[in-house]
Design goal:
elongated, Glutaredoxin, alpha+beta, five-stranded mixed sheet, two-stranded antiparallel ribbon
Length: 257
Amino acid sequence: MKIIFLLTALFFAQIVHGHEAVNTGQEIVLDEKLGSFLPLDIVFYDEKGRPVALKDYVNKPTVIAPVYLGCSHTCPLLLMGLADVIERSKLKPGKDYQVLAVSFDEKDTPQIASEKKPGYLKATNIPFPDDAWRFLTGNAESINRFAHAAGFHFKKEEVGFSHPVTLIFLSPEGKIVRYLDGVTFLPFEFEMAVTEASKGRAVSLARRTLLYCMSYDSAGKRYVFNTLKVAATLVIITIGLFFIYLVATGKRGIRRN
């Protein structure tokens, strides 16, 4: 009974994921702020050590990759996954959107950022305008303001950080409209997120539900209705509701006796 109930709950958890925080077992590390605005007066430093405010860059759909440059695993995977989807996307960097890799480690420096940047630009395998992907570093105050506003919470560990792995999509006005979790991304979902960012429209629960019911057909390069997935989910829900009904009616019968 408990297993069926958990499976039923899992379906709804998959749909609403992102509207609730992610728990690592130690503390909450991601609390999506869809519809909120990132303070564009936050000052960071670009790869050349120049102080820049976010408002200097956020003038078109913007993809933010929160990382720390000393990371040896998840952050490089996130940035390589971003480079990969940029290569496969039909959108043009610098024209349709721009990218900001924002470090949340105050020990990262512009020099480190300038050393890391060329490799990721090269990994896109396309002509990439230098000013379309910035690597920003900052002090503790700027980092904490950014992290709080974005709902991106992290914890310093003995080695590195525990942190979410996600991309954050901003509208030209700085509104947070989408998060994409993980280190691999489909061109369709990336392009959809950029399009939504251009319109300043946060993803609704209905759209999340729709995406849950779809699968990406790489051959046809389109989303198709996943009949098997939806049918299996409905079966789990039906069985779960049936058992809940049996338990409820059984308890009423016991009270009568």
